[in-house]
Design goal:
The structure is a homodimer of 126-residue chains.
Chain A (H helix, E strand, L loop, with lengths): L6 H12 L6 H11 L5 H13 L3 E4 L7 E4 L6 E5 L5 E4 L15 E12 L1 H6 L1
Helix pairs in contact in A: 1-2, 2-3
Chain B binds a DNA duplex (25 and 25 nucleotides) through α3.
Chain lengths: 126, 126
DNA sequence: ATAGATGCAAAGAGTTTGCATAGGT
DNA sequence: ACCTATGCAAACTCTTTGCATCTAT
């Protein structure tokens, strides 16, 4: 039978609909728990995997950090990692073609840029 | 007393001196084990941490992958991840200043670029 | 009523740590 | 002889999985 609409799943989907930036599984758990107290981390992992399979959310891999997840977007974009608060933000632009950096013989299929520094909030607090 | 020169440490340092690309802890273990059979993974982790503290090697964080380690270099550079063989290669160049991508108020301190695709060897095998 | 979804706890994978002992100084 | 570095195994963290139970359909 088809997928069921549960409170947990609804809460997790709602988190992605309203969040402004990519979230970690812990952040998803905490925000979903506001609507469904007692929700388990396994449910978050399961829902995240299914939403990824359905291409409704995308993993945002941050080197040295647990992946964050955000609503799937059509446009290619990158991310900013705040070294103070560890939050991740989306960056809409892309510097463009990087194939000129490649050694001969290498085939470029994708690229990923992570900017690091302080987000506006943390920079203002300095 | 000062740090001791053991066969294990010598072997691990030798791996970095001769390797052409950033290595994972498993790769380090395997290559060091050629010189010191029975060397334990804990020894590799401990040596890697100490070499990092001494700034003799640097971690190469690859999003979604275990970090690789390479000899510390002075020049800023980036990395290429081969999606076929999972090996990581160094890329000497950098596209330059990316601060124009930043949202207002954000403070840029570093950036990291991972190119993905096929290395020369894997591309040739296609 | 049925079968997919959930929560818990156990199991894995990767990394770190405690401890007795080997071995560099 | 001293005391650091090692190897093993246990501990930890993060993620996945098994299973009894719950619940949407």
């Amino acid at each position: 039978m088809a997928q069921r609409v549960t409170n947990q799943r609804r809460a997790i989907e709602h988190v992605f609909e309203t969040c402004a930036r990519p979230l970690s599984t812990q952040e998803i758990l905490e925000q979903a728990a506001a609507a469904v107290p007692g929700i388990g981390i396994a449910t978050v992992y399961r829902a995240v995997r299914e939403l990824q399979d359905e291409r409704r959310i995308a993993a945002v891999p941050i080197a040295g950090e647990a992946p964050r997840y955000e609503r799937a977007r059509h446009a290619h974009h990158h991310h900013f990692y705040c070294q103070k608060c560890t939050k991740v933000f989306s960056i809409d632009e892309c510097p463009g073609d990087l194939s000129r950096l490649l050694p001969p013989g290498f085939r470029l299929m994708d690229h990923e840029i992570t900017l690091r520094g302080e987000c506006a909030e943390c920079a203002a607090a300095t």
